[in-house]
Write a structure and sequence with these properties.
Strand order of the largest sheet: 1-2
Shape: rod-shaped
Number of domains: 1
Mean pLDDT: 90
Number of helices: 0
Low-confidence stretches: none
Bound molecules: iron/sulfur cluster
Radius of gyration: 19 Å
Number of strands: 4
Distance between the termini: 40 Å
Length: about 70
């Protein structure tokens, strides 16, 4: 007797920052950790710091990569 094979469910991949391995929600904002932080200057007080680029969950770029299973 022949048995039917079940089709594997395919999870839809959505190319967006919120599904990217480099997306890190932190302190109420979303950082992209694809590259090292860059220098940022506060022009009001002249202070200098470093920070990762801030992104919106629905954005994406050409470096998008799916999250790792871990
Ligand atoms: S899609 Fe691009 S900008 Fe967005 S988190 Fe990933 S690497 Fe950063």
């Amino acid at each position: 007797m022949a048995t039917r094979k079940r089709k594997a469910e395919v999870e839809e991949t959505v190319v967006a920052c919120e599904h990217c391995r480099y997306f890190v929600p932190k302190d109420g904002r979303n950082e992209c950790r694809r590259n090292p932080p860059t220098v940022a200057v506060d022009f009001e007080d002249g202070g200098v710091t470093s920070m990762f680029p801030l992104v919106e969950a629905g954005e994406w770029c050409g470096c998008w990569s799916p999250r790792l299973n871990s």
